[in-house]
Design a protein that fits this description.
84 residues, alpha+beta, Beta-lactamase Inhibitory Protein, Chain:B, domain 1, four-stranded antiparallel sheet, 3 helices, 4 strands, elongated
């Protein structure tokens, strides 16, 4: 394995370890929390969809994510999967 491959694998592992999608951050979420505060904690969401003042946003990947439903700019409900 070349040095370049070792560096690339190490970088990917380090970035995955630095993800804000953690059980600790999930535990900090609260109903009524402003969206700006959520984005301070988790960063910008990977995807969002919604209409009529309601939206659903997801942080993370397919097997490890946090999903939050907003009413206006306030957290209404949230869930997570694959968090450690």
């Amino acid at each position: 394995m070349s040095l370049r491959h070792v560096f690339l694998i190490g970088t990917v592992a380090l970035l995955a370890a630095c993800s804000p999608v953690t059980q600790e951050n999930f535990a900090k979420l609260q109903a009524g929390m402003p969206r700006a505060e959520v984005e301070e904690l988790l960063g910008k969401p990977g995807e969002c969809a919604g209409a009529l003042g309601m939206s659903s946003c997801t942080w993370g990947q397919k097997n490890r994510f946090i999903s939050i439903q907003f009413a206006g700019d306030k957290v209404m409900m949230f869930s997570g999967q694959g968090l450690k």
